[in-house]
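queue> holo job accepted (FE2/S2 (inorganic) cluster)
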Amino acid sequence: MTEQPTPPEQCDATLSACVQNLGINHIDRHVFICADQTKPKCCDKAASIIAWNYLKKRLKELGLDKPSETSPHIFRTKANCLRVCGQGPILVVYPDGVWYRNATPEVIERIIQEHFLGDRPVSEYIIATSPLPTLSKAPT
Ligand code: FES
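queue> job finished
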């Protein structure tokens, strides 16, 4: 038996609820980290999973994983490979375009405290900086 497609109006409601729940319209920074790779090349796979779990845990503990009046909203995504493939875990922060190497839990804590909360990137772990161009907001 073939599964019936979801009616468009139901899709819209589901997606709208998801966008709302994730606070996507209020993201201040989006962080990607290379973790749980199919082919771990930049670091040990287990180490990358530890880093990813630490990032998730700390953003949640600090209330940075959702919109707030008092703190930035940091959205996080686990990437399979960020194509740098050395001295990982590799982590990149947008819109700043700051790329970090060796994103261990200790370095991630510094990135959270200094970069996300203090607006001072952690210079000794930066491998590249390439901010995204400023764009006007798309209509909602
Ligand atoms: S495997 Fe981590 S950046 Fe490619």
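queue> Helices lie at 8-22, 45-61, 105-116.
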